[in-house]
Amino acid sequence: MIDKSRLLDDLRKVRDRVGEPPTVGQYEELGRYSEATYSRRFGSWRRAKEIALGKAKLEKTRDEIIQDIRIADNDTLGTLTRKKYNHAGKYSSRTAKRVFDGESWTEIKKKALGNNG
Questions:
Q1: 7: helix, coil or strand?
Q2: Which of 34, 108, 12 has its CA nearest to residue 68?
Q3: Which of 24, 11, 16 is nearest to 90 (CA)?
Q4: Domain extent listing, the chain
Q5: Sign of torsion, CA 31 39 64 103?
Q6: How much is the mean pLDDT over the chain?
Q7: Which pLDDT value is given to residue 50?
Q8: How far apart are CA 91 and CA 113, in angstroms?
Q9: DSSP states of 28-88
């Protein structure tokens, strides 16, 4: 079993490389372990990031989420699905749902992209 301190150190190293708390996609590209390993050891990817990087650095605003969805939509081919956003976005669809008080992905995407979403 991988020591928790090793997992947290690796997460911090990836954060330092990308200059911000990494998305799952960024971490899995640059890190040594999988998101599933963090979820098993810490209960969730978010909880691992909170422990490693501090909770205050993870709080996002609605405007940040909307801007990120717009950027991810421009960077992906076809319809921006939740799965595509989780890979291409800076944040995750779970973060968006939390910030938007549990609204559905479809509703959040409409707020960001209008009827084009």
A1: helix
A2: 108
A3: 24
A4: 4-58, 62-116
A5: positive
A6: 88
A7: 86
A8: 16
A9: HHHSSS-HHHHHHHHSSHHHHHHHHH-GGGG---HHHHHHHHHHHHHHSSSS--HHHHHHH
pTM confidence score: 0.53
Which amino acid makes up residue 50?
A: E
Check residue 102 and give its pLDDT. Answer: 85
From residue 31, alpha-carbon distances to 18, 26, 73, 115 in Å are: 11, 8, 25, 37
Residue 59 has pLDDT above 80, yes or no: no
- CB-based contact 22:48 (threshold 8 Å): no
What whole-number distance in Å separates Cα of residue 101 and Cα of residue 54? 22
Whether 49 contacts 11, CB under 8 Å: yes
Distance separating alpha carbons of residues 110 and 36, to the nearest angstrom:
30
> What one-character DSSP code corresponds to residue 91?
S
- What are the pLDDT digits (tens) for 66-102? 999 999 999 888 999 999 998 888 888 988 888 888 8
Model confidence at 6, pLDDT cuts 50, 70, 90, reads very high
